[in-house]
Amino acid sequence: MQYELYLDVLFLENLLVDYLLLSLLKGILKIPAGRLRRLLGAALGSIGVCGLYLLAIESTLAGRILLYVVFSTVMVRMGLGIRDLRTCGKAVALLYISSFLLGGIFEWVQSLIRLPLYPFIGFTLLSYWLLSACMEWLMGVRSRLQNVFEVEVRLGERTIRVRGLLDTGNQLRDPIFGKPVSILTEQRKLELCGSKEPLYQMIPFHSIGEQNGILPAFFADYVSLCREDGTKKRIERPLIGVTKEPLSSQKDYDMILHPDLLE
Question: Where are the alpha helices (DSSP H) in 7-55?
Answer without folding.
Answer: 7-29, 35-54
